[in-house]
Each structure stands twice: as structure tokens, then as C-alpha cells.
Design goal:
It contains five helices and twelve strands. It has 173 residues and is of the alpha/beta class. It has a single domain, classed as Rossmann fold, CATH 3.40.50.880. Strands 6-3-1-7-8-12-11 form a seven-stranded mixed β-sheet. A three-stranded mixed β-sheet has the order 2-4-5. It has a two-stranded parallel sheet with strand order 9-10.
Length: 173
Amino acid sequence: MGKRILMVIAPKNFRDEEFMIPKQIFENLGFDVTVASKGVKQATGMFNATAEVDKDVGEIDVAYYDTIVFVGGSGSSIYYEDKITLELAKLFYENGKITAAICIAPGILAKAGILKGKKATIWDSGDQMFIKILEEGGANYTGANVEQDGKIVTANGPQAAKEFAERIVELLD
């Protein structure tokens, strides 16, 4: 059976390449990719890419998927305080599934309480704001482009999108 990946993007201002590069890699390998967002049928990227949304974040059956990938971009911070999305991250992690996030989206994992004592990376905005969010969530910030700690994979931005997707693929094998 093919692997099933859930990609969660912001309704507005997801980071185009952090969505499109991993999605293309996953689909080229024959994985079944579902796109989820909050309250929209079509999401818009920071650089005007559009994405059809298959499911609302409130309609996800965790048991159906092997992996959850939170896509970054400035819009993804809407999920930092979203109870449904934070619970989703927690459920994927607690069920032993690959839980991944790129750019500022690792902040979602920190806010969900699943990075305590884990190595992780996040976008460095220059003012340390996002690094502080990770550290407040108990993570050990490494500054790496891509960081893996068990089944948690984090990456720090669009330049890491390909390596991020490849690390997720390795874990799925």
C-alpha cells in the first residue's frame, strides 16, 4: 500500500516552495498526498501559488495517514494558537507517526508540546523570535538546515525544502 502524507498549509501566505517541492517529490514516488488547511477550498502562497485544499484541519482522521507535514511561510503562524491543529500535531506524534514541519511551522510542534527535550530547527528571523518559541517549547535548537529527532523532522526554510522532503521519504521506507 502506498504511503499517505497529510500536508497542512495556511489559508494565505504559505511558502510556495516549501509546499510545492516536497509535494512533487512525494507524488513522484507514488505517495498519496492530501492537502489540508483551515476554512478554505483554495489556499494562496506568499508568491501567488495556489493550492487546492482537500480537507479542513478539523476533518482529519489521524489513523488514515503515515505522516503529517506542516508547511511554513508567514501564514503558518495562524496555527500557533489553533487548538484543533495543535491537537492534530500531538495526535500524529503520540501515534508514532512522522511529524514534520519547515520554516516557522516547527513553532506549531513546540506549541503542541511535542518538542520537549528534542533537537529541532526553525527559521532564524534575525531577531530570534522563532528560536525563542522552540526553546520555550522545550526544544534544543540546533540551527541545522534539517534536523531529525526520532520521528520528528524539522527544517529551517525554503532552501532546505528538498532535503527536508528526502529525509521524510527515508523515514517512510
